[in-house]
Design goal:
By secondary structure, this protein is an alpha+beta fold. It is 22% helix and 40% strand. The protein contains 4 helices and 9 strands; from the N terminus they run αβααββββββαββ. It has helices at residues 30-33, 47-54, 60-63, 160-189; strands at 34-43, 67-78, 88-99, 102-113, 117-123, 128-139, 147-157, 197-201, 204-205. It has a 9-stranded antiparallel sheet. A hairpin with a 4-residue loop joins strand 5 (117-123) and strand 6. The chain is globular.
């Protein structure tokens, strides 16, 4: 089951530009400007199922936390000579996020390697100097209908003002991301094949 990929909300005009601040504010310590978050989770859905959901960017606005719009503008495939049926795909998309007074649109270049990785690198962002997120999908060693999913996000703000305004929001989004895709999987595919479990956060095992 797949929801049609056409996004009818891509033309929303409710977003506004954040104010520009002096460049000198970008000299703040990197610990304040940049954040990283990594988690590993056992999910009751296969790597193929989870990959297809993460690669379905046109539908992000239906379920990704605080994603207000998601539109893929261009898409191209890259041939795989050794495995022709597994062609990589590169997309250029525009994503809009909104939360209370915070609103931002940015372009993201997304590279999808079936059925193992999805990497998105943002550009044209007024808020971020760096915004990268990566997904890695591995088969579960005990059940091929389940997977081990690694999610990593790395972001650096352009100014200390933006960092102070937005850090708490983006930490909340980062921590909720995999759970959002798990709920989407249940909606699209039905009941999971096994118990889901958070295994690691920022390299530390979760008991």
């Amino acid at each position: 089951m797949r929801i049609p990929a056409k996004n009818t909300r891509g033309s929303r005009r409710s977003f506004f530009s954040l104010p520009k601040f002096p460049d000198i504010l970008s000299d703040a310590p990197s610990s304040l400007m940049s954040k990283k978050y990594t988690e590993r989770r056992q999910l009751g859905y296969s790597p193929v199922q989870m990959f297809n959901l993460v690669a379905d960017i046109d539908n992000y606005h239906h379920f990704v936390p605080w994603c207000a719009s998601s539109t893929v503008f261009t898409s191209r495939y890259i041939d795989n000579e050794s495995e022709p049926h597994l062609r990589s795909r590169t997309m250029l998309a525009e994503l809009g996020v909104g939360f209370k007074a915070f609103n931002e649109r940015y372009t993201s270049e997304v590279t999808c390697v079936p059925y193992s990785t999805v990497k998105a690198v943002a550009s044209n962002s007024q808020l971020f100097k760096i915004l990268i997120n990566e997904w890695h999908f591995l088969p579960h060693p005990d059940n091929p209908r389940m997977s081990l999913v690694n999610f990593h996000i790395d972001f650096e703000f352009k100014s200390i003002i933006y960092a102070q305004m937005s850090t708490a929001f983006f930490e909340q989004v980062s921590q909720a991301m995999v759970e959002a895709f798990e709920r989407r999987a249940r909606h699209v595919y039905g009941l999971p094949a096994g118990v889901s479990k958070l295994l690691m956060v920022d390299g530390k095992a979760v008991s």
